[in-house]
Amino acid sequence: MEEMREMYRNLGISDKIYDYSNDILEGLKERFDNIDKNAEYNQLKVINAMQKNRVAEMHLSGTTGYGYNDSGRDTLEQVYADIFKTESALVRPQITCGTHALNVALSANLRPGDELLSPVGKPYDTMDEIIGIRPSKGSLKEYGVTYSQVDLLADGSFDYNGIKQAINSRTKLVTIQRSKGYASRPTLSVERIGELIRFIKNIKPDVICMVDNCYGEFVERIEPSQAGADMVVGSLIKNPGGGLAPCGGYIAGTKECVEQAAFRLSSPGLGKEVGATLGVNSSFYQGLFLAPTVVAGALKGAIFAANAYEKLGFKVIPDGKEPRYDIIQAVELGSDKGLIAFCKGIQAAAPVDSFVTPEPWAMPGYDSDVIMAAGAFVSGSSIELSADGPLKPPYSVYFQGGLTWYHAKLGIMMSMQKMSDAGLINL
Ligand SMILES: *Cc1c(COP(=O)(O)O)cnc(C)c1O
Predict the structure, then answer these.
(1) What angle do CA 405, 409, 414 make, to 5 degrees?
(2) Of 44, 180, 318, 326, which residue is most buried, by most CB within 10 angstroms?
(3) How far apart are CA 258 and CA 104, in angstroms?
């Protein structure tokens, strides 16, 4: 153990932080064991899908030009479909991010005169302009698609009455966000999503239920597509890319929904047939292969942070004991100094850009300064250890990721070190 202490000392972690962290971790063994079991289950799921589809060395290289007959791409899409238990999937580097994937899924499956319903409150900020909640060029609103929203009740439960009333003859698609994102509502378990979908389909069987699956993949043993969702949508620079995918997004779902999406992403008539993968196939496969383990590391980091900061007296969401349905952890640090110190710690622990100091700045679209910390191999990747928060009360930091548990652990220890150096916590 003394050797280990010395390694942490060399990185700037004091004995106090080291001992405190080990005490916290003593109490988390059983939870970590359960996370490992889920990761094992999901690892087998991934390997099984790869074997079943006879993934071969030739699939790891890519095409150029139109990308006709890209068997690596087509096989990967079948692997995704098998993992998510869907009829089909679209997994493409041409999908630039999660927001883009959601836009493709929505705009492909809605037509003028249709209505989109969110029964779980306001969706993620970047959806505002897709839907037209905030006016934007090319929004669904501009194309004559209306939007209706039913908020969760104060205790976080579904407003079944309100949802029933909101569903009408024009309701074509229901969007359900699994992760809380930056809202304060609880993240939805796949089980709860299933209950909601059953309720909705009971009222209107032909409505398309789409789940924004960002940050949720591989956290549980089942995915929302196994609980009735017609489409699940996400980003490859989050969970399923396993940290290796350099870009991309996915849409998995029914044959009809995915075909609509493919016709929208490329062109009517072309659909899934085109889209060169250049060199990314091998990182898509390998990232997916690693994703269950990477997600497990990120979850351990989130739970370690929740427990470490909770014991120091901070409000943490979710709390130290709650079950997890995504990889995001929020900590209310209570002061600008606390938020800045936390982010400095995350940055100082990074493998890349550890020597830079994050500073608050006036990011477009936000009503206060924002601070962000990340030292990532893939720019903007949030399956890598990253933290950010707006400089306004209650000075919450949202952090997520960590390609390895040991890195997530160091990041959180370093955040406590910076808090301690600034006199903000007392161990
Ligand atoms: C990250 C995220 C998005 C958007 O993904 P980007 O890749 O940032 O565009 C959408 N919804 C949720 C819940 C997210 O977490």
Answers:
(1) 150
(2) 326
(3) 10
| pLDDT at residue number 1 | 67
Domains of the chain by residue range = 2-42+292-421, 45-288
| Separation CA 369–CA 363 (nearest Å) | 6
CA 214 to centroid of ligand 1, rounded, Å: 6
How many angstroms separate the Cα of 89 from the Cα of each of 25, 73, 109, 143, 264?
39, 11, 15, 26, 14
99 lines ligand 1 (CB under 6 A): yes
Give the model's pLDDT for residue 182: 78
Closest CA to 261 of 226, 225, 224, 231: 231
* Residue 361 scores a pLDDT above 80: yes
Q: Is 214 in the pocket of ligand 1 (CB under 6 A)?
A: yes
How is domain 45-288 classified at the architecture level of CATH? Answer: 3-Layer(aba) Sandwich (3.40)
The per-type count for the chain, helices as H runs and strands as E runs, is 12, 12
Instruction: Describe the crossing of helices 29-52 and 281-311 by its angle, rounded to 10 degrees.
Output: 170
Using N-to-C axis directions, what is the helix angle for 405-421 and 281-311, rounded to 10°?
40
- Picking from 129, 131, 130, 126, the residue whose alpha carbon sits closest to that of residue 147 is 131
Residues 6+ apart with CB under 8 A from 82: 48, 49, 52, 53
Residue 268 CA, ligand 1 centroid: distance in Å: 26
Is residue 339 helix, strand or coil?
helix
304 Cβ below 6 A of ligand 1: no
Q: Of 363, 362, 373, 359, which Cα lies nearest the Cα of 402?
A: 373
Q: Is 168 helix (H, G, I), strand (E, B) or coil?
A: coil
Q: List all residues 6 or more positions away from 403 whose beta carbon is below 8 Å from its beta carbon.
A: 243, 294, 297, 383, 384, 385
| Strands 329-332 and 370-374, bridge-based pairing | unpaired
What pLDDT digit, counting tens, does each position of 219-261 carry?
A: 999 999 999 999 999 999 999 999 999 999 999 999 999 999 9
- Decide if 258 contacts 54 (C-beta within 8 A): no
User: Do residues 131 and 142 lie in contact, with contact meaning Cβ atoms separated by under 8 Å?
Assistant: no
The answer to whether residues 395 and 332 touch, using CB atoms and an 8 Å cutoff, is yes
User: What is the CATH code for 2-42+292-421?
Assistant: 3.90.1150.60
- For atom 8 of ligand 1, the residue with the nearest CA is 98
How many of the other CB atoms lie within 10 Å of CB of 355?
A: 9
Query: Closest Cα to atom 3, ligand 1: which residue?
Result: 98
pLDDT of residue 365: 64
| C-alpha–C-alpha distance, residues 332 and 321, integer Å | 17
